Amino acid sequence: MPASSPFDAACNTVNGHCKCPWFTAFFDVGAGASDSDARASLLQAGAFTGALTEALIALSGCTGYLANYGGAVLVRRTGQGWLPIAYHEGFLPLSCTSHRGADGLERLACLESYGQNQGSYASSATVVDFVERRYGTLFYSTCEDGRDVRSVRWRTSDPFALDVEVVIDHGMRRENSGLSCETVGGKRRSSVLSYTPQLDGYAPNERSAKLLQKLADPPELDPKVRSVLAAKPPEVLPDQLRPKREPLELTDVCPCTP
């Protein structure tokens, strides 16, 4: 039934405590995970799927490690109150900024960072479009790569321009002890990567592509082959530094229509 607030719509509120809702992995699992209250916080407010009043609520504590312990719930205000609309499991970004396009709808540019096994972590810059249900990863790196995403921002407020800038730190040398990933050398530098939307997703501009190529690990060649060919790195970006676009995995949790 409709709730009085977006937070109550995102989770089961019992005696003032947020409990994991039915569409999450830890709903009604008995003793253990469900004993701890879920935590709901506002990630972003806006019109994500239509000319509507909506909000994206970060819900943590309702899934296991493999899904980053939670996800985001899209909630919508109706005449009767707030209702949950869709759930994006595993999506718990550190921060997001919205951009209102010429169609009046909001897209998100987000900084994500999640823990991994053996004391490491990964950071990424992503763009989320709820209307087209597309999820784009512009830049991804693990701690051992010696590169971190510092911030993600829209280049301009122009509703007809959806360019994104990603600020990264790089140049560090790191080692993983199995308990944590630590900086052991190198010199930290910051650079700005610019990405523009294409028909099949985002792509770095020419300047950013050249920087990404420099950041790429050199191709592994047999020393004898290298000495004969004196090969230089290929001009195409390696897979780990190439932007990717995939479907936005949303679970519909309400039979509501705009």
Mean pLDDT: 88
* N- to C-terminal distance: 17 Å
Unreliable runs: 30-35
Taking strands numbered 1, 2, ... along the chain, how are they ordered across the largest sheet?
3-4-5-6-16
- Helix-and-strand structural type: mainly beta
Task: Tell me about this structure.
The protein is mainly β and 258 residues long. It has three helices and 16 strands. The strands form four sheets. A five-stranded antiparallel beta sheet has the order 3-4-5-6-16. A five-stranded antiparallel beta sheet has the order 7-8-9-10-15, with no helix packed on it. The longest helix has 10 residues, at 206-215. The two termini are 17 Å apart.
Question: How does the SSE layout of this entry go?
Answer:
Layout (H helix, E strand, L loop, with lengths): L5 H5 L1 E3 L2 E3 L19 E8 L7 E7 L9 E8 L4 E8 L5 E6 L5 E10 L5 E9 L4 E9 L4 E8 L9 E13 L4 E18 L2 E4 L1 H10 L7 H7 L14 E4 L3 E2 L6
Antiparallel strand pairs: 1-2, 3-4, 4-5, 5-6, 6-16, 7-8, 8-9, 9-10, 10-15, 11-12, 12-13, 13-14
